[in-house]
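Regression test case RT-17, inverse folding.

Input:
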């Protein structure tokens, strides 16, 4: 039995180039939802064709209530809403393999669409065991701590390059190429649907062959978070076991990445509080 987990973000979806397209209460938000669903559907359909007996989809964007479960196949289980203990990876502990759909590059990446790490207004940089990581790296480490490999990452070219530099052999599927943070060369949705399906079939075929290993940079784990403003770091410093190592920077060490990740979520939440 092959159990497949999808973590579905939105910034890396086909056609999306603006935060207005991924933000609730913005006129273009429905376009972003439609594109997120389209990419998710393409991967889900191909996963079913590739032999997945169980598919769990976690809505991983913003408030995590973007995907309409009525539009997904009846065999798919959707995890919707927030907060969630594992955040973007909620449900992965029940899976054999993870697929990241519609992801974006970490904050500060050149020619990356809508680049950020967790929050475009709060977090400046995150380092895991000395290496700069974004949501791809944080998610992969969480999967790895649970023994689950990441086989596929889809998004813009920059996100795919980031994934390939971090996860040996991972299959990637770029659906657009950034010409800046808010501009891109786009492909027709029909084209990206075909490419996503092909990449999914390849990723799961290689998974069956044992091509992927869980990404585990530790233990021990050291997580360093640099915020945009000192006032954000003031508030985030209440989250243990983080300790302040600079005006805008916190650091924490732990043997268990799941516990460290929970502390990280608490720190970012505190930093973003009004």
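Golden output:
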């Amino acid at each position: 039995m092959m159990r497949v987990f999808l973590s579905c973000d939105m910034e890396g979806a086909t056609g999306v180039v603006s935060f207005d397209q991924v933000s609730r209460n913005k006129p273009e938000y429905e376009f972003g939802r439609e594109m997120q669903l389209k990419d998710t559907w393409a991967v889900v359909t191909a996963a079913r064709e590739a032999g997945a007996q169980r598919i769990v989809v976690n809505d991983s964007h913003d408030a995590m209530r973007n995907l309409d479960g009525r539009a997904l196949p009846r065999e798919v289980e959707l995890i919707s809403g927030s907060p969630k203990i594992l955040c973007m990876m909620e449900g992965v502990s029940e899976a054999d393999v993870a697929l990241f759909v519609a992801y974006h590059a970490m904050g500060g990446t050149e020619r990356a669409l809508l680049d950020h790490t967790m929050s475009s207004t709060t977090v400046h940089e995150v380092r895991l065991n000395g290496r700069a990581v974004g949501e791809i790296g944080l998610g992969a480490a969480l999967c790895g701590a649970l023994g689950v490999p990441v086989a596929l990452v889809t998004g813009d070219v920059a996100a795919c390059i980031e994934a390939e530099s971090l996860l040996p052999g991972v299959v990637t599927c770029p659906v657009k190429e950034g010409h800046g943070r808010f501009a891109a060369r786009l492909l027709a949705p029909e084209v990206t649907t075909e490419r996503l399906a092909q990449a999914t079939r390849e990723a799961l075929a290689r998974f069956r062959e044992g091509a992927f290993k869980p990404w585990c940079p530790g233990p021990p784990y050291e997580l360093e978070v640099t915020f945009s403003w000192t006032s954000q770091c003031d508030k985030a410093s209440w989250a243990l076991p983080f300790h302040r190592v600079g005006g805008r920077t916190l650091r924490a060490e732990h043997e268990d990445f799941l516990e460290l990740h929970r502390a990280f979520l608490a720190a970012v939440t505190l930093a973003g509080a009004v």
